[in-house]
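REQUEST
  id: r-88c1
  op: predict_structure
  target: HAD family hydrolase
  payload:
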Amino acid sequence: MQVKFILDFDGVLFNSAFEAYSVCEQATKGRAGFRQDVDFDAFMRFRSVVTDAWQYHRLYSESEAVSPADLKSVEPGEDDWAFANRFFTARETMMADPGWAKVMPAYPFFGKLKPVILAHPDRFAILSTRNVDSIRRTLAWHDADVIPVFGQEHVRTHGGKLGVARAQGWCDRTRHMAIYLDDMRRHLEPFEGEVLLPLHADWGYDAATPGSISQEQAMKIISSLLVLSQQVPETQWRGIAA
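RESPONSE
  id: r-88c1
  status: 200
  body:
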């Protein structure tokens, strides 16, 4: 059994909100059928409930827009997936700029976690709905592209983040003592009872709750479990992970 820390990217490691807004603007600017009046404040109100890129279509579409409160009940249609493809194409174009990653500031959590990741890359993985190349480009910009990355491509293949986790064996408690950290409660809900600790980050885009943890608390949990794994053979952890 091995301790595994599974990390979301957007809203946990990096504040990518303005990058996502810039991509949406690039994808819709001057195009018929899309709103041209979405400012950053409106984008951020919507971002707080977004869990996948196709959902931005329901902010920018002139005919199919919904309120943030109604987004949860929307199932993606053909136009939504077409928008997602347009979104990722626009991002790819913007990534041609060598300094593209600078638009996404790292949270203090990442600054503290980076040396731990570099020292223990086998203990970490990223699980995100962002496309893999953009994640790796950002990590490389920060000299930290050393851990496995599972992104939009894997999420679509396996039908969601939980599907990826199951495919990787992270939900098998005889193999992994998995801790999953995400800032979106809708992403965490399916992991209840599937991994040892689904943890809600209070510094991202979703609203914090009494059960959310801070950046400092997240670091303490990770550091403590790493120390414990070095002092106590992980073969003796089965009672904890059961």
